[in-house]
Amino acid sequence: MQLGLVGLGKMGFNMRERLRAAGHEVVGYDRNPEVSDSASLADLVDKLDAPRVVWVMVPAGDATLNTVADLAGLLAEGDLVIDGGNSRYTDDKTNSELLARTGVGYLDCGVSGGVWGRENGYGLMVGGDAEQVERAMPIFDALRPQGPREEGFAHAGKVGAGHYAKMVHNGIEYGLMQAYAEGYELLDAAAEVTDVPAVLKAWTRGTVVRSWLLDLLVKALDEDPGLAELSGYVEDSGEGRWTVEEAIRHSVPAPVISAALFARFASRQDDSPAMKAVSALRNQFGGHAVHKAGPTSGSGEVK
């Protein structure tokens, strides 16, 4: 299948390579000419055979909205746009309605897998019309992990459902990382425990708290014992805030996710071991920038 892919950053680049390895033809566009297959967005569209499918993988917010608006002026009836970034689900209605004016379809796809997705596959949550989802299924099947489709892919519902599902996924992720990080700090504070990394590694098999996130924390400690090279300053990229806002809107109690979000706010004032662990985890699974430890609390260069 042929696909246009807009945005060849950390995830987009790896997605292009995974799709090509599965035998799909991918024409990519990025502002960085060193990785781009096209000179411009218009050039990318010209290189695709109608009816076209274009996957957008750029930062959420104005970057995505502007890209979709540009595509609306370049694509034609029967084409399809898939937004695979971390857009807020409310933006999907705007994008869908804009493209529908010229007969262009729209799907929103929450994508999880970070920098490891090229090798392991990506968890996919899609919103939109069932016919359009089926049309793009060869792409989804190539990107998702091997195994039963339902264990790595979900048609979550109508337009907006994919990004809503990914938003909640990332809110849960906040809570899980915070729990591991607090456990790490408590172990590190106890005089009785003399080998914290060994304890965490022992938890990675057979225990009820084993997970990929725990594996990544062990990996981070192997690479930087004590996480001495990191500042405890932790960013939040939006989805955690949106999850808490939705919990308030629906009157759904979400104390763990809320506390994890507020802990990130506190991290910018207090350089704690727990927040260093959260910072390390974000860097491990998503390649997110981290703040290196500096001479003063909460400071440091972003890497």
Concise account of the structure shown:
The chain has 303 residues and is of the alpha/beta class. It has helices at residues 10-21, 41-47, 62-72, 89-100, 117-120, 130-135, 137-143, 161-189, 196-202, 212-223, 239-249, 255-267, 273-286, and strands at residues 2-6, 25-29, 53-56, 80-83, 105-112, 123-127, 153-157. Helix content is 48%, strand content 12%.
Q: What would you note in describing this structure?
A:
One of its GO terms (molecular function) is NADP binding. One of its GO terms (biological process) is D-gluconate metabolic process. InterPro entries: 6-PGluconate_DH-like_C_sf, 6DGDH_YqeC, 6PGD_dom2, 6PGDH_C, 6PGDH_NADP-bd, 6PGdom_BS, NAD(P)-bd_dom_sf, Pgluconate_DH. Belongs to the 6-phosphogluconate dehydrogenase family. Keywords: Gluconate utilization, Oxidoreductase. By secondary structure, the chain is of the alpha/beta class. The protein has two domains: 156 residues, NAD(P)-binding Rossmann-like Domain (Rossmann fold, 3-Layer(aba) Sandwich), CATH 3.40.50; 121 residues, N-(1-d-carboxylethyl)-l-norvaline Dehydrogenase, domain 2 (Orthogonal Bundle). 48% of the residues lie in helices and 12% in strands. It contains 13 helices and seven strands. A seven-stranded mixed beta sheet has the order 2-1-3-4-5-6-7, sandwiched between helices. Strand 3, helix 3 and strand 4 form a beta-alpha-beta unit. Helix 3 runs parallel beside helix 4, helix 8 crosses helix 11 and helix 8 packs across helix 12. The protein is elongated. The two termini are 37 Å apart. The mean pLDDT is 94.
